[in-house]
Specification:
Blueprint (H helix, E strand, L loop, with lengths): L5 H14 L4 H8 L3 H8 L7 H11 L3 H6 L10
Length: 79
């Protein structure tokens, strides 16, 4: 099993969210969390459940693999 970089995951979430034009407040509401929790995830100050990760992937239109490990396509917000 490959390890993943939690800080990089937070950065990917922030980058993708901003590329899609989603505010942190809207992002939090749409995944059923409070904005502080989402900010903490983006700064690697909080972990997330699998269900939260799947909600984030769905909202950001990326796979769990892309979220956890990155990909060459992550810079394209319209995939």
């Amino acid at each position: 099993m490959s390890d993943y970089d939690k800080k990089a995951v937070g950065e990917r979430i922030r980058t993708r969210r901003k590329a899609l034009g989603i505010s942190q407040e809207d992002f939090a509401e749409r995944i059923g969390r409070v904005p502080k929790f989402c900010a903490d995830i983006e700064r690697d100050e909080a972990g997330m459940s699998i269900q939260t990760m799947l909600s984030i992937c769905s909202l950001l239109k990326i796979s769990a693999d892309q979220l956890l490990f990155g990909s060459s396509d992550e810079s394209n917000p319209h995939d």
